[in-house]
Amino acid sequence: VVDGGSRDNTLEVLRRYPHVRWISEPDKCQSDALNKGFRMATGDLVGWLNSDEYYFPGALKTIAELAACNSHADLFYGSGIAVNQDGLLQRSHTSHDFDFGVLLYYGIFIPTDATFFRRQLFDEGLLIDLSYRVTMDYEYMVRLAARGKVFKYSRCLLGVFRWHGSNLSLQHE
Q: Three-state secondary structure along the chain?
């Protein structure tokens, strides 16, 4: 867990779970915090989950099985949904098999709350570009694809994104 110095009860909650690795310190931006988390991760597969997102039950097992059967792939993703503050469905984010042309034309169709990376990507120095404040996910996916990284899609519903008035993407034009 990478916390940017929250003033709520985040640290109190984290201290209740001694097995969880975490850091709480100011960061330059969300991209910086993500990179800190990627560098801290020790597993072979690393997820990207923001504080207002969560996984569906079985998501981790699904990705582990997908990764075990696709040793050539670098990134694994599924579909996701968006809910409001009350947990009510706002929209579904059904993805599809990876297509670089569609990514370039349409934009980001890979929900980060349903995405997992092989740790090897970070070991290669492929991290989030700090100059991107909102579209860092799109730029990162384009950069990975341009470098020939292999994306593998699971038709399973894996992640949930929560829409609320303070989402970072709603704070910038």
A: CEECCCCCCHHHHHHCCCCCCCEECCCCCHHHHHHHHHHHCCCCEEECCCCCEEECCCHHHHHHHHHHHCCCCCEEEEEEEEECCCCCEEEEECCCCCCHHHHHHHCCCCCHHHEEEECHHHHCCCCCCCCCCCCHHHHHHHHHHHCCCCEEEEEEEEEEEECCCCCHHHHCC
